[in-house]
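Q: Here's a chain of 474 amino acids. Please give me its 3D structure as tokens.
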Amino acid sequence: MNLTNRLDEHPIFARVAKVAAEEGLETYVVGGYVRDLILGRPSKDIDFTCVGSGIQLAQAVAKTFDEHVPLSVFKNFGTAMLKLDDWELEFVGARKESYRQESRKPLVEDGTLQEDLERRDFTINAMAISLNAANYGELIDPFDGIKDIKAKQLKTPLQPGITFSDDPLRMMRGVRFAAQLNFDIEAETFFALTTHAARLQIISAERIIDELNKIIQTPKPSYGFKLLFASKLLHEFFPEMVELQGVDSVDDKSHKDNFYHTLQVLDNLCQASDDLWLRWAAILHDIAKPATKRFHPKIGWTFHGHEDKGARMTPGIFKRLKLPMDERMKYVQKLVRLHLRPIALVKEEVTDSALRRLLFDAGDDIDDLMALCRADITSKNDKKVQRYLDNFDRVEQKLKQVEEKDQVRNFQPPVSGEEIMETFGISPSKIIGDIKEEIKEAILEGRIQNNPEEARLLMLQIAQEKGLYPIQKP
């Protein structure tokens, strides 16, 4: 197969080929860019491998541009990177690798193109395109990557046990590629995942979570999670999610399998949003169900308080998985805590007070919360699902009406603590917080409107009941 026409679509390839010839360096386009070019997937990252010094080639290419092109050199790794507009070009010398049992960091030596390709994770990533004059544009495919692309399967160039034992992160990458490309994992390769899953323990949590987040950001993440579960990889780093799987029955009373329910909620949500952290809220919304599961002889299985327990578990899970311990964690925690609230409002009659409290607690995240709750409606009964969704439409319409009228989203007290102290001539004390809390409750209950005038009148009334009176101004 010759891909000269495809290379001609971007002038960088001819430029690199010309420089490589001048430098006497046998050079190839390799890896993911080749795969994506064949699959017709967009890619802005191009990897060049030469038999010799990749840094030398990158420096020589950089000099051919009239304008300054940012060049980063990583001498310890023998690589260099050029940034060309929104393209990233990486240059490296062909190499062969060997591994120690306790580490995924390889011992690297100069190598041939064949040795460079065979050290790669999957056959679909072990292809190269020649930039050499003798066979410019020719596809080099020593491990039948094209065949595996046509079969839509992932397979390792070498024995999978060797590939995964050498670098266990490749197991996570395999699941990620399967999820991104909607490929199968070839049987022998998948079996090696299951037998080497424990090797994932030598991989840092940061590298694992990077791959997991890429799986979560695919159009249908459930596929990736099912592969992680079946291969036992998930058991190595996310036991809380594994514990969701399974169904218990007592006296013919069962509960749904919360693992597969969670995956359905996640897939449902992905149709509405590509926000990574909202997707994490879907993953964690029922995470505390195993810890709160109880059986009641009359009503069956219950999970009372799983939303609050799940919110309390969220920081620990984020910390262990090396997810960000910042506002993104707090956002997920809030949605986990509130995810049952809108469902409780899906009734024919819902009070404005309940809607105001929901708006107050959710703030600007109310729309994301409602999207999560819509996704949480899972049933084999399509009519039941549609009935719930129709009720959600009514709740959302009422939420808009209440917000327009009462403006309690991101509630700010209409009377400040400073105004209370100035009005009654008092110093900071608990009574100020009590007055503000009573005013807030009155607004949420609908006893007064959310405006300064009605709030000040109520402030005077509450203060009088507590024995406080406005000071007389001269």
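Q: Can you summarize the key feature?
A: The chain has a mean pLDDT of 89.
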